[in-house]
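Project outcomes to date are best conveyed with an example. Our students and postdoctoral researchers have been running inverse folding experiments weekly, and each run begins with a structure described purely in tokens. The record below, which covers 242 residues, was selected by the lab manager from last quarter's runs and is presented without edits.
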């Protein structure tokens, strides 16, 4: 899922720009938005059943009518919101605000902040889509694999935490080298290595492995793939754990 963060001072035109960008991206894939409400707390409709349920202290309350679903969740985490959209199969997410986070940004107005694009047109954003940050979860990637296949496919996914990176000056670069070497191996199944990949319960990047095949996947082959990965990390002084 591509993240397009839009920031700017109040009244700079962020919302207007996002409203122009949304229908353009919607034609290219599924998309969602996240807005930082800041200190202006969203008021739930008083007296509604979904509000009354939420006020009992539960973690989530969902209302469904004949055209949409509205969910209120007791969390203020942008990371969990991104995970939810990724798991729903969104291809693009526009974030308005959250200046304290450093995703690839579009700056509207004269705000002094790092920016991938500054006061762009909608077509400028579309042209630079490959340059914006990607956000993966394991369910979203497994779903993408199945969507890309023209025929039925078997998909297995694994999530590992990586240890041994203390004292390594640039662990991400080292991990990319390891995964590039693993990608050169010829196997009768498709294997994709993802780093960083995020899990709903933690914001720490981990290693994701997805194996898929139209002919089925046997245990022996899976063990070969995982053994190769573990050995490659060990040779580099790192370890992976489920």
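After processing, the design step wrote out the following sequence:
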């Amino acid at each position: 899922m591509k993240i397009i963060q839009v920031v700017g001072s109040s009244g700079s035109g962020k919302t207007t720009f996002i409203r122009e960008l949304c229908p353009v991206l919607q034609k290219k894939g599924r998309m969602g938005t996240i807005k930082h409400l800041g200190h202006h707390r969203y008021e739930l409709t008083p007296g509604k059943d979904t509000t009354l349920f939420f006020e009992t202290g539960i973690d989530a309350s969902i209302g469904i009518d004949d055209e949409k679903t509205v969910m209120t969740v007791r969390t203020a985490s942008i990371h969990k919101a991104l995970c939810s959209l990724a798991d729903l199969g969104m291809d693009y997410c526009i974030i308005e605000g959250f200046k304290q986070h450093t995703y690839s940004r579009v700056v509207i107005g004269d705000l002094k902040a790092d920016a991938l694009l500054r006061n762009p047109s909608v077509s400028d954003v579309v042209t630079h889509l490959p340059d914006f940050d990607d956000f993966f979860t394991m369910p979203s990637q497994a779903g993408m694999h199945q969507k890309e296949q023209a025929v039925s496919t078997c998909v297995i996914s694994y999530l590992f935490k990586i240890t041994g990176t203390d004292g390594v000056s640039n662990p991400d670069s080292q991990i990319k080298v390891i995964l590039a070497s693993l990608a050169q191996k010829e196997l009768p199944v498709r294997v994709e290595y993802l780093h960083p990949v995020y899990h709903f319960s933690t914001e720490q990047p981990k290693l994701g492995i997805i194996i898929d095949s139209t002919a089925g996947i046997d245990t022996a082959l899976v063990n070969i793939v995982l053994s190769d990965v573990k050995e490659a990390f060990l040779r580099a002084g790192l370890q992976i754990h489920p």
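The chain has two domains: 2-134, 138-241. The chain has a mean pLDDT of 81. The training component of this project remains on track.
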